[in-house]
Automatic annotation (TrEMBL):
Keyword Hydrolase: yes
Segments forming domain AB hydrolase-1: 21-119
Gene Ontology MF terms in the entry: hydrolase activity
Family matches, as InterPro entries: AB_hydrolase_1, AB_hydrolase_fold, AB_hydrolase_sf
Protein name per UniProt: AB hydrolase superfamily protein YdjP
Enzyme class name: hydrolase
Protein's UniProt keywords contain Hydrolase: yes
A Pfam family this chain is assigned to: Abhydrolase_1
EC number: 3.-.-.-
Organism of origin: Anaerotignum neopropionicum
């Protein structure tokens, strides 16, 4: 199995297909396993690359996650891209991975082609989520569906991974409270923001949440597009995989992001 050394630990990755590289960035409590099957939809036209952040999946475990989690994971991905000498890569980040993708683009625009940021809450943590995250995660650990997901992502020691993630989210909301170190107005990469209107983590707050928040972000950035899937849960890349692939390929192959606003 392919690994590269990062901070003295082994970090797992996979490569499939040939062509322009796309790096898939997984979300919180997940691993690159969340893209199993989905990445294969891209391999006819692209080199699909997946990565397990430290502490996740098949990568070495950490005693604790960094409180500034999504920025730290961006630094991990930057080191990986440099190590592999990919040159410029397209990024697809989903849920927490979308925050990582945007951070990479802000910090190292020289390494980034285009960006798809899927199913994320915006520039700041959602209070409706963070204020209950500890209780909600404890409840999820008793649910068979959630436990099966966690185990599929990480193996038998999934509970320590989930607990580390929960603590990092809780502490981040208290002490940092924003996802990006640089203003999103400085983002240069072409970017597409995606989500599902029926996303179970968002729709209870506002069924038009993604449209409203993404529109505000695109106005700040000054360029980019939006695609909201009418159906499907969280994240859109998993619940609308075939349609997502079509949208993503069209975005990567076209220079006019405005046509994706819908």
């Amino acid at each position: 199995m392919p690994y590269f050394k990062l901070r003295g630990k082994s970090c797992y990755y996979e490569e499939h297909g040939d062509g322009t590289p796309i790096l898939f960035l997984h979300g919180n409590t997940a691993s690159s396993n969340m893209f199993m099957g989905i990445k294969d939809l891209f391999t006819n036209s692209f080199k699909a690359i997946t990565l397990d952040f430290l502490g996740h999946g098949k990568s070495d475990r950490l005693e604790n996650f960094c409180t500034d989690l999504w920025y730290d994971e961006a630094l991990q991905a930057i080191e990986f891209i440099e190590h592999m000498r990919y040159g410029k890569v397209h990024l697809i980040g989903s849920s927490g991975g979308a925050l990582v993708a945007i951070n990479i683009s802000l910090e190292r625009p020289d390494l980034v082609g285009k960006v798809i940021a899927d199913s994320f809450e915006g520039e700041q943590p959602l209070r409706e989520f963070t204020q209950n995250v500890i209780a909600d995660r404890e409840a999820s650990k008793q649910e068979e569906g959630a436990k099966s997901f966690y185990c599929a992502m990480h193996g038998e020691d999934w509970e320590s991974v989930v607990d580390n993630d929960t603590y990092a989210i809780h502490e981040h909301a208290k002490s940092i409270g924003k996802f990006f170190h640089k203003p999103i107005e400085t983002l240069n990469a072409n970017i597409l923001l995606t989500g599902s209107q029926e996303d179970e983590f968002i729709s209870f707050i506002d069924p038009n949440y993604f449209t409203r928040v993404y529109t505000e972000m695109i106005e700040k950035i000054g360029h980019g597009g939006i695609h909201i899937f009418k159906q499907g849960g969280h994240p859109a890349i998993m619940s609308n995989s075939e349609e997502f692939r079509k949208v993503a390929e069209a975005f990567f192959q076209d220079n006019d992001c405005r046509k994706f606003n819908c």
